Amino acid sequence: xxxxxxxxxxxxxxxxxxxxxxxxxxxxxxxxxxxxxxxxxxxxxxxxxxxxxxxxxxxxxxxxxxxxxxxxxxxxxxxxxxxxxxxxxxxxxxxxxxxxxxxxxxxxxxxxxxxxxxxxxxxxxxxxxxxxxxxxxxxxxxxxxxxxxxxxxxxxxxxxxxxxxxxxxxxxxxxxxxxxxxxxxxxxxxxxxxxxxxxxxxxxxxxxxxxxxxxxxxxxxxxxxxxxxxxxxxxxxxxxxxxxxxxxxxxxxxxxxxxxxxxxxxxxxxxxxxxxxxxxxxxxxxxxxxxxxxxxxxxxxxxxxxxxxxxxxxxxxxxxxxxxxxxxxxxxxxxxxxxxxxxxxxxxxxxxxxxxxxxx
Length: 360
Ligand code: ADP
Prior knowledge:
The chain is α+β, with helices and mostly antiparallel strands. It has two domains: 4-232, 3-Layer(aba) Sandwich (Rossmann fold); 236-242 and 271-339, CATH 2.40.50.140. Helices cover 24% and strands 38% of the residues. The protein is built from eight helices and 20 strands. The strands form four sheets. It has a six-stranded mixed beta sheet, sandwiched between helices. Strands 13-12-11-14-20 form a five-stranded antiparallel beta sheet, with no helix packed on it. Helix 2 (92-102) crosses helix 3 (107-120) and helix 3 packs across helix 4 (136-149). The longest helix is centred in the middle third of the chain and has 18 residues, at 166-183. It starts with a strand and ends in a 6-residue tail after the last strand. Bound molecules: adenosine-5'-diphosphate (ADP). Adenosine-5'-diphosphate (ADP) is lined by residues 13, 18, 36, 38-44.
């Protein structure tokens, strides 16, 4: 069953269209992230789902029922904001109880449900503390508990970790993800941080300029991006533009500068004589001995970054970024060979042009 269906959703502010007719289905229990640069429409989408913004056109369905015109309090959602939005004069337990009191839940049941929610977000021993006596991460767990205690059908989170420092943010990613799986609640998570979206989500929805560019599993968004814009937003992407030497049933033969060739398996369409644009992630290129290598280059810059070494390599295909293991170190200025795993090169959509012209 589809839990949330967004159908051709348009949201305009005056003449400006913040959402240009987006459509998306989210399954029961799924964790979906809306990912994209600032201003692309992520928060607007979430606010339309929550009912904090009136939609201009289109529909939003929960369990196949149109809720587009319902008030936020009638939508069965729990919401967590970047700013926590806790009541400062209430203790943790009182913050959690508030939503239930508003819903006139009997006192004994409130007590039970608050105790359960505090346990879920691991705050039982802080029940009587006020928000200002808690760390940022603890405060955000109160906000999570407060959203979950009302047992909503859908959990909406808007950049909930943006105010936390890097270490805590990492911990909270795991915490939220585990909790979401345990509770099994359909979750929509807004972030501009690609690592966060990738590590937490079942599916990542990449947005630009009020439209969805791709909605897919994290692995697919990373390895098989729908557009170059997606490729570059979700990680570092090298784009190679290579002439097609021949196209056969078993693959595409591409020519590298310096005479090397690459045989791209599969059915990527590229006619002989055209140019093909391919994406290679930095960790998918290996530095090898220059003699007999597919492509030659020279190390322009080298940066040690803990887990790996980052090389900026000047090549006849332009500058390429390569990630190498710390067990292999190559000095700046050194001539190197580059080796590509043709299986993992990804032809970019619309990336075919003519050899004499400019690729699209
Ligand atoms: P994101 O969450 O991806 O950063 P938003 O959804 O907040 O982006 O904004 C999308 C676009 O809508 C932006 O161009 C923003 O300026 C515009 N926008 C958002 N809220 C309003 C508003 N209340 N009035 C006018 N324009 C708005």
